[in-house]
Write a structure and sequence with these properties.
381 residues; alpha/beta; eight-stranded mixed β-sheet; five-stranded parallel β-sheet; 13 strands; elongated; disordered N terminus
Length: 381
């Protein structure tokens, strides 16, 4: 793999020699490895939990050019795990916050930011500017998009994901015969069935560790040392203190990726639920207790879940059925003159259902926390 070069690319100045002296004295790394890092460029898609630690350690190691793509702003709830940001950055774009942190840490790193969401129109142009792509995103649509762009551009992709106390790391598309993300998951899961960090939660240390492991794979690829996770999935579990590797092979039925137009539906698989109306379980309990005749509750879990336990007065309407166009007329007829509330186990599928219905101009309110938070609400009536 050939990396781009810049002025003084093959020389370390006195500050760099002092800064990287532990690398220079490391057997198998040395000055040659440090110069390779200096001549390399890596873009990180996402400056959140994974990106925070991956970016910091890549910058500290001496990656010459670092790209950061993210369109979110720093929120106080980010700081539990997104350690590249701090209190003073709340309300600022994560790209700006991360750039400031890198420059404080290592002024030798050149930083290029993209305060935008990666999409099928800009992905090729942005990713083509870098040697290695590091996926620190948090949704399937972006992961498939980045993967396909890397295949088209023939760029190595460092993959990481976390949920709860567990995380995964792998390297895709490193060589001509290497697997890519679609060999792991050919198609995105059903909408609403996979919880995000917002819905399910994540221990702050988990993205920190996985992000560091991503940075480690980047460094190994650049300095050409060690065993890279090419064709391997590394699974790390913090609760069990366990780490295991699984083999991943190229699928015989793999779809050929020629452009970013073919799989557009995969890139849009994540429904953005930012604009839907929500209600806390506490507030909904008050409404349920006093205004039950004025509302209608659609339980969007599957039939078997509904049969095991359901809220009194709710109507079973699985998310899979809501996706069918013939469901919309049924919903309108059933809910005439009433406020519609969507309900599921944790509030994940109900948010997705509300978003689908909002697109059909059916106004609904998703109950946050779902049945898990409501408990045995039937006792209230």
């Amino acid at each position: 793999m050939q990396f781009s070069t810049n002025n003084n690319a093959n020389i370390l100045n006195s500050d760099e020699r002092e800064r990287y002296k532990r690398h220079l004295s490391l057997d198998g790394f040395g000055e040659e490895g440090q110069i390779r890092l200096k001549n390399s460029s890596v873009i990180f898609i996402g400056a959140g939990g994974l990106g925070s630690s991956a970016i910091i350690y890549a910058a500290a190691a001496g990656i010459g050019k670092i790209g950061i793509a993210d369109n979110d702003k720093v929120e106080i709830s980010n700081l539990q795990r997104q350690v590249i940001h701090n209190n003073s950055e709340i309300g600022n774009y994560k790209t700006d916050s991360a750039e400031r942190r890198i420059k404080e840490l290592n002024p030798h790193c050149k930083v290029k930011t993209f305060t935008t969401r990666i999409n099928n129109k800009n992905a090729i142009n942005i990713l083509s500017q870098f040697d290695i792509i590091c996926d620190c995103s948090d949704n399937f649509g972006t992961r498939y998009l980045i993967n396909d762009a890397c295949v088209i551009l023939n760029k190595p992709l460092i993959y990481g994901s976390v949920q709860g106390f567990e995380g995964q790391v792998s390297v895709f598309n490193l060589k001509e015969n290497s697997p890519n993300f679609r060999d792991l998951l050919p198609k995105p899961p059903e909408q609403g069935l996979i919880p995000s960090c917002t819905d399910y939660g994540v221990i702050g240390i988990s993205p920190g560790i996985i992000g560091i492991l991503q940075a480690n794979e980047i460094i190994k690829i650049i300095i050409k040392k060690g065993k890279v996770l090419d064709g391997k999935i590394l699974i790390f579990n913090l609760l069990e203190n366990s780490m295991r590797q699984l083999n991943l092979k190229v699928s015989k039925n793999a779809q050929k990726i020629n452009d970013l137009k073919t799989n557009t539906n995969d890139y849009e698989s994540e429904i953005n639920c930012e604009n839907i109306k929500r209600i806390s379980h506490i507030e909904f309990k008050k409404i349920y207790q006093t205004n039950l005749n004025e509302i209608i509750i659609f339980d969007v879990r599957e039939k078997d879940e509904f049969q095991k336990f359901s809220i009194k007065g709710s109507i079973s309407l699985p998310l899979s059925f809501i996706k069918e166009k013939n469901s919309f007329e049924f919903i309108k007829n059933q809910s005439f003159g009433k406020r519609i509330y969507t309900l599921c186990q944790r509030g994940i599928r109900s948010a997705t259902a509300s978003k689908i219905l909002l697109q059909e101009k059916i106004d609904t309110i998703s109950i946050e926390g779902g049945i898990d938070k409501l408990g045995n609400i039937n006792k209230l009536n």
